[in-house]
Amino acid sequence: MNEHLRAALHLATTGVPVLPLRMGKVPFGNCPTCAKNVCGGRPSMRTPGPCICPYPCHGWAAATTDPGVISSPMWARAWREAAGVAYHPGGAGLTVVDLDNAEAIAWARGTLPATRTVPTTRGEHWIYRGTMPSANAVRSGVDIKFLMAYARWLTSGVDTMAVLPDAVRALAAKEPSPTRRPSRTLSVPLGGQRETRPHRTPTYLDRGIAMAEQHITGAREAVHATVYRTFLAVLSTHGRCGCLTEAQTARLFTAAQAKGESPRHCADAWTNALTTLGLSHV
Fold first, then answer.
1. Which of 96, 142, 191, 203 sits a CA distance of 20 to 30 A from 54?
2. 22 within 8 A of 77, measured Cβ to Cβ
3. Distance CA 122, CA 69 (A)
4. Residue 21 to residue 84: CA distance in whole angstroms
5. How far apart are CA 36 and CA 41, in angstroms?
6. What is the SS3 assignment for 52?
7. Taking the complete model, does pTM exceed 0.70, yes or no?
8. CA-to-CA distance for 86 and 64, rounded, in angstroms?
């Protein structure tokens, strides 16, 4: 067993989804079955977890904590050729502050609390426990990596990870535009007939909540990321019109907590989804 496979299996036991990296710090290409994403990308590279094929396809979305997959014969060639190990921060409930130059590092050292810090080719990664939306160029030389991202895992650096500070969350916060503030009421077109919106009908809404509960309940790995994505999907469809009730929101939180999520993680995921969609002011 080579050092990269050994490191990957160890990380997986701690709940960190991993994948092999080839030279150039990039994931392995898709297998012949999935070449040019003919399989649909599982689906469209937005869902963590392996493709339906057994190979380490689809970049960050292939990251897994399943030791049976990681050490499977189908991944053996990738580990033999691997130049490193990557992980999916969102699947582990972590956020990476990617500092690309000396100026960004100096800013972090003077602004952010100490945490696990690992060197990179151009700068440093500061890793925090907690979640927030991924964002690029939040300030000069600083990117935020969480969902739909991967980072190289290095063994050096401070082991202790601090809680994600408000100073990092503030980097990606945007003031909502008053012209985009959604209305909580249905508009009434000329002629006096009320506009119909399928997502506002009780049947459609209840079906959507039930599907969201099933999606969370069926998660076998990357529960943090699954809960966030599900909250994001529900709010993107039903969050702008004020039709969600407290009871329906509670159903989603209950499903998430049944999978091991704490009330705080649920609240953070809901808040992050609202912020991502520009609905935090609603």
1. 96
2. no
3. 32
4. 5
5. 9
6. coil
7. no
8. 11
